[in-house]
Amino acid sequence: GTVVSLVPFGACRGVTLRGVEYPLTRHTLRMGEMGVSNVVRRSPATFRIERGAAIIIIQRDLRGMAELWPR
């Protein structure tokens, strides 16, 4: 499945994640803390940050693309 990670730049307040294995509701994440390897359980998954900025990394299932990388 699709794996998502959230990396805050400074403090992020009011972080809400829905449709993922480990949901959050109005949580605060600080710089150095990460919400990593959260698996999407239903689509669409939603992400909201009330205050602050973060990068969201989306890692899709690449098992079917193995032929793109030679060994």
What labels describe this entry?
71 residues; 58% strand; four-stranded antiparallel sheet
Describe the structure.
The chain is mainly beta and 71 residues long. The chain contains no helices and 4 strands. It has strands spanning 3-18, 24-29, 35-39, 46-59. Strands 1, 2, 3 and 4 form a 4-stranded antiparallel sheet that branches. It is globular, with a radius of gyration of 14 Å. 14% of the residues are buried.
Q: How are the SSEs placed, and which strands pair?
A:
Elements: E1 3-18, E2 24-29, E3 35-39, E4 46-59
Antiparallel strand pairs: 1-2, 1-3, 1-4
- Number of discrete helical segments: 0
Radius of gyration, taken over Cα atoms and rounded to an integer in Å: 14 Å
> What proportion of the residues is helical, as a percent range?
under 10%
Determine the strand fraction and express it as a percent band.
over 45%
Separation of the first and last Cα atoms: 24 Å
| Class derived from helix and strand content | mainly beta
Give the SSE string: EEEE
Q: Calculate the mean pLDDT score and round it.
A: 86
Low-confidence runs (pLDDT<50, min 5 residues)?
A: none
Tell me about the largest β-sheet: 4 strands, antiparallel
- For the secondary structure, the number of strands is 4
Anisotropy-based shape: globular
